[in-house]
Specification:
By secondary structure, the chain is an alpha+beta fold. The chain has four helices and six strands, in the order ββαββαααββ.
């Protein structure tokens, strides 16, 4: 129709006009318009139907493009997070390997115990220190007592219990019998892990 409002400044005058929204249910992306139908004074109802179908398909294309962009950004974020986790894991393994090398050179070892004295994990150097395979290793502080010199067992038990109850560091020296029968002198530091108390505060 003549005198259509909303056209850009300087747009030539139009005799007939058909405009449809390029939109989906949730968002309007723009407008599609036609002007001055060839050979006709006005656009027909069929023209409006065809233009509406085209605009709807164009709206779906825009929506799919947005979804694709969101998926691509999400995939890129996951890829970055995966790479960061892999890097952190590699750094952790490298740190553990370095710790094991240092402990081996210095004749050191460590073991992590639970609240009941169960052995949760130990360093690779600990079995070698006591002359055992990992399968032969004691599974708790109670079993560890069995390879200590008899006169040292009570002091060890008191130190272990005291460290757990007080949640404080304890140092103790004792004699230990290796699997090959040799006796070695051991200095052990019992130190609770910060923030690792159980429900009973142990």
């Amino acid at each position: 129709k003549a005198n259509v409002e909303g056209l850009p400044p300087g747009h030539p005058p139009v005799r007939s006009f058909l405009g449809v929204a390029v939109a989906t249910r949730d968002q309007v992306y723009g407008w599609l318009y036609y002007a001055d139908r060839s050979g006709e004074k006005e656009f027909s109802e069929e023209d409006e139907r065809v233009a509406g179908v085209l605009a709807a398909k164009l709206g779906l294309l825009y929506e799919n493009a947005q979804f694709y962009d969101v998926i691509q950004r999400h995939a890129a974020k996951l890829q970055i997070e995966s790479a960061e986790r892999a890097q952190a894991q590699a750094s952790l393994q490298e740190s553990r390997a370095g710790l094991n090398r240092a402990q081996k050179v210095a004749g050191l070892a460590h073991v992590i115990t639970g609240p009941e004295g169960e052995f949760l994990s130990w360093s690779e150097t600990l079995p070698a220190l006591v002359g055992m395979t990992p399968a032969q290793m004691p599974k708790s502080t109670r079993e560890w007592l069995d390879i200590l010199y008899l006169d040292d067992r009570m002091r060890f038990r008191e130190a272990a219990v005291g460290a757990g109850v007080a949640h404080a560091r304890r140092d103790i020296e004792y004699r230990l019998r290796r699997a090959d029968g040799a006796w070695i002198d051991v200095r052990q530091v019992m130190e609770p892990i910060p923030g690792q108390r159980d429900a009973q505060g142990r």
